[in-house]
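Researcher: Here's the sequence for the chain we discussed earlier.
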Amino acid sequence: MAHAHSTPQLRPLPGLALPQFTYSLSDIQVRLGQMDRSTRWLLSYVAKLIDGHGFPAPLPLQHGDTVDTMPRVKSRWPAAAVDYWFDVQLPQGGGTTARAERAAAEDLDARAAAIGLRTIKGGRS
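Model: Thanks. This is the structure I predict for it:
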C-alpha cells in the first residue's frame, strides 16, 4: 500500500531576520527606478538588459515541462549578482552607499527582531 508523503514546509524561526539572498521582479523594478511601468514592459526591458547589457539572468524557474531562465513575474534574481551589476553601472562610490544603506537596514531589522518586533516586507506581514 502506497503512502502519500507530504513535504514539510520550511519556515524561518520566529523573530529571525534573514538576509535577502534574492530579489523579485518588483525589487528589480524599484532598483531600475521604473515603478510607473507595466509588468509587460518591465519583463521586456529586463530581457533586453540580460541579452545586451550583462544584467544577470534570474534563477531557473519551472515553466510547464521546462526549466528556463527567462524573466517572468515569479522570477527571483541572485541579490549579489544584481548588486554587482548596479555597482558597475553607478559612478565610483555610488554602489558602496547603496550597499551600506542595505546593510544598515538589515542591521535594524535584526535588532528589531532581537527585541521581539516583526518586520514587514512588501506590505504583508
